[in-house]
Amino acid sequence: MPIADELRRNAAERIAAGRPVVEGVLGFDETVVPQLENALLAGHDVILLGERGQAKTRILRALVTLLDEWMPVVAGSEINDDPLHPISRFARLRVADEGDDTPVDWVHRSDRYGEKLATPDTSIADLIGEVDPIKVAEGRYLSDELTLHYGLVPRVNRGIFAINELPDLAERIQVGLLNVLEERDVQIRGHRVRLPLDVVLVATANPEDYTNRGRIITPLKDRFGAQIRTHYPRDVATEVAVVRAEARIPSDGVPVTVPEHLEEVVAEVSQLARRNPHLNQRSGVSVRLSIANFETLVASARRRALRTGEPEAVPRVSDLAALVSSTQGKVEVEALEEGREEEVFAQLVATAVLAVFRRRVVLADPAGVVADFDAGKVVHTGDDLPAAQYLAALREVPGLEAPARALAGGEGESPGMLAAAVELVLEGLHLTKRLNKDASGSRAVYRSRH
Hints:
The chain is α/β, with parallel strands linked by helices. The protein is about 45% helix and about 15% strand. A five-stranded parallel beta sheet has the order 4-7-10-1-11. The longest helix has 22 residues.
């Protein structure tokens, strides 16, 4: 069965059973996945067009699960020759010589996927093949097809070949690739080798590279039956789901509990960054930003727990200051804004915290909360303060207790969760201009505005 038909059959079975054609990809159910299903059912080669961090490579690698688990090949074949229809000189000679006694190997579907990151130095030898000097040294003539060492594309015959960042591939190499995939005829150092390869071609491209730094030659672009545009998560809930699935949280040492409102703050920062005019949107703001920020937030909470001896690490708003290091390398500030990276990031965090505060916190009596501060009370916060200090602050400012406990989830919540809730309420009161905040690094003092 041709590889395109194999993918079509298995994709159709999944669609009929109500299962996704690709596993582990979130937020594409109504956009990318239906287009991908159409392309598979049509038997098309596919190019995924999108900015960095949009799960393009993951989608391509997930297509392997649509292949049959095992496939028979002529034993010893370098290019997965079909025992009934061999195409390489080695396999043809072996089948002609041994007939029905030709030994057969079984190849797992994981070995039927080849991937190449396109770089300007990629050569025809990498993709198609080259004369093997060792085979020549063994006594074979240069004119003998058996002296050839096949490249990546022939070696995934009867499988899927993926090219990441296709526009970065030199145009002359793209011509050679087209020749193999369309005309099935390529010359390797004078050898005219006709290889009727059975390969499904899939590729990725960044829109910026696609239009400016590199280009896909028109004949090769025409070879793709489907061009599918990917995108970033379009809402906070999807971004949070991606972070939960991808973030690596250590399982050893101090246990970690991350409040839902802080998960939302991390996701909201990325969502806001993708709309921020001070950031370069052409290169995109990857989902990796949310994942790295989440992992840094957890690390800051674990560091505090190790220093204070607390039994549980719970991130707080004051830990958000640690995200500067994990953010700066993943966003590009516009040229006019250079030197203001930390200021731009602080604005993103403040806007994200305010959005989550307005969604999550209900103040039945805002004036009553502020009244405690008007009486001269102050509350100290910081990423190095133990949770017990926040419990003391609740006794000093009783108006904070009701909204903090509601946010933390009730009376039985841990001191760490309650401390995290207190910080969000205080920061929200400051951002809504009900309290003043004197900040120094990750430490802050909240006081009355009068």
